[in-house]
Amino acid sequence: MSPGGAPLDGCPQCGAQYANAGDSCASRFAQLLALDHSRQAPWGPLHGLAFSAYVLQHSAEHTASLERCWLMAYRVTVAGDDPSRLANALRRTRDATLESFDAPPLPHGTPPTRFALTIADLGDFAAADYAMRCRMWARSAINAWRTPR
Ligand SMILES: [Zn+2]
User: Fold this and answer.
1) If you measure from the C-alpha of residue 100 to the centroid of ligand 1, how many angstroms do you get, rounded to a whole number?
2) How far is the CA of 59 from the centre of ligand 1 (A)?
3) What ranges do the domains of the chain cover?
4) Tens of pLDDT along 32-46?
């Protein structure tokens, strides 16, 4: 809620709410990418998973990578693959398909706009519980896409 009591506008794509007008999913994601690119654990090894979660929740500007992100998030959060090993395998396999990685098709229909967890819920990406939160974030994206709309 804003100080005036009216609900704040959420992110039109993932529904995240921010208390400050200058805050946004894009600015949080830029902060997270800076951590990822430091190549430090826990962020670096989870870069592919974090990128996938973000894209699945903000697919409008990322349609080209959507299927690969679905594959990554599904294989890690549902099938239990190791995220950095999977990212390496995907880098080596230019023509990777969902079938070749044993992932179901990306559900059809309008992208979901409500998620149990968004990038706003990851706070400042603190190292202590980032690995768990990142997986929960990706799982919430998978769950929303699999829910009939
Ligand atoms: Zn958002």
Assistant:
1) 30
2) 10
3) 25-146
4) 999 999 989 999 999
